[in-house]
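can u pls check wat happens w/ alpha-L-arabinofuranose
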Amino acid sequence: MNIPRRSLLAAALLAPVFAAHAAPLVMGFSQVGAESEWRTANTASIKSAAKAAGVTLKFADAQQKQENQVKALRSFIAQKVDVIAFSPVVESGWDTVLKEAKNAGIPVILTDRAVKVADPSLYVTFIGSDFVEEGRKAARWLLERAAKTPGAALNIVELQGTVGSAPAIDRKKGFEEVIKTNPKLQVIRSQSGEFTRAKGKEVMESFLKQRDKKIDVLYAHNDDMAIGAIQAIEEAGLKPGQDIVIISIDGVRGAFEAMKAGKLNVTVECNPLLGPQLMQLAKDVVAKKPVEKRITVEEGVFTADMAAKELPNRKY
Ligand code: AHR
């Protein structure tokens, strides 16, 4: 084919102009809800990162219901977004809708929480924390503390997150894996507090009412439930952080304030500020660049004695 030189020159000159006006990437994002301080920070990070990256964000809040997330995903497919990202409220039940996205040629990125699907090619990549390791970190801290009073039995109560969610399943698993190495540590009660302050308080009240066994330790799968439980413990006339040792996960400001006040002993960090990495990942995925299947986040452990110094540095 003979293309006149003048047309080639014109095309070369106009290319940057068209590129500058190329349509922005459109991302459909389905969020779990607004159940915790962590989630609020995660949503803010995603919204501000989308703005900064020039990504058009279609954001849907599922109010902790899987059916709402499935509806949101289907609506994103119908709108032909460039990429779908979501933080699945629970692990199972995603095969059908993810197949629909795949058939429509829309790549899916999991953020924060994982799914259990028969075919892992139904999503491109998963960015988020290692929840099993978070549970292990919480338990290792307790083992070290228990080592200071060898032989003493410790009764633990556990506030689990949302039933069927990846963080609830994994944080329980990681914690149990480590504490079973010391038979003096026993989980005597375990119930879901749905990752919320209100439910954490309610369940802790019911734990405290059952007076058959003394409670030595509370392990809460997130800070919000621990903060709710702290209220219940105080209302029962006990000193949180002293009469009952409290361990939780997330590392939100509320937890640092509670640690500074001596009411919470330790929080294991779970970083919600995933927005900037997610936007870059979305651009790479849409550009068909190779990406890792699993991207984890670096996180620390903060104890009460570190709280006052760390509090001013906390970003969420
Ligand atoms: O999936 C992350 C968890 O979900 C956070 O630990 C919790 O606070 C949130 O609701």
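The radius of gyration is 23 Å.
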